[in-house]
# Entry
Amino acid sequence: MSGSTTRTQEFPELGFYMLAGEADQSADALTQVQAAEELGLGRAFLGERPNRKEAGAICGAAAAATNSIGITLGVTNINTRHPLLTAGLALTVQNLAGGRFVMGIGRGVAAAQDMMGLKPVTTAEMEEFALLMRRLFRGEIRAT
# Structure
C-alpha cells in the first residue's frame, strides 16, 4: 500500500470518477485517486473503456496506491471479457484493495458491441452472469 499519510474517510458518502472523458494518460488515475483519498472521499469510480482505461490495470494500480478509499469498477461489460477473466480481475483487485473493491456489471454500448460483432445482452444473460460470478467467487471449479 501507499506510504503516504491518509486521512480517514471524512466524506464516505462522496465519490469521484477517475479519468473522466477521454484519458490522455492512464497514470493520471493514480494522482487523482490519491488526491481524493487525501481529501477524505469514500469512493473512486472507473468506467471501462478500450482507450487507456483497462479496468484491471487501473483498478489494481489505484488499490495498491491507496489505503482507505473504495475502488469501484463502475461497469464492466459481460460479453467483452470471459467470465473466468472477469472473476479473476475482481478477486485479484479485491485482494490488492484489502476488501475495498466493488465491481459493477453491465450490457455495454450497442455501437461498440456492433463494431466487435457482439449481440446485445439480455436481462436473462445478466442474471446468468451474476450467478456464475457468485459460483466463481466461491471457488467452484466448474462454471456450467
In short: The longest helix spans residues 123-137. The first strand starts at residue 11 and ends at 17. The CA atoms of residues 115 and 143 lie 28 Å apart.
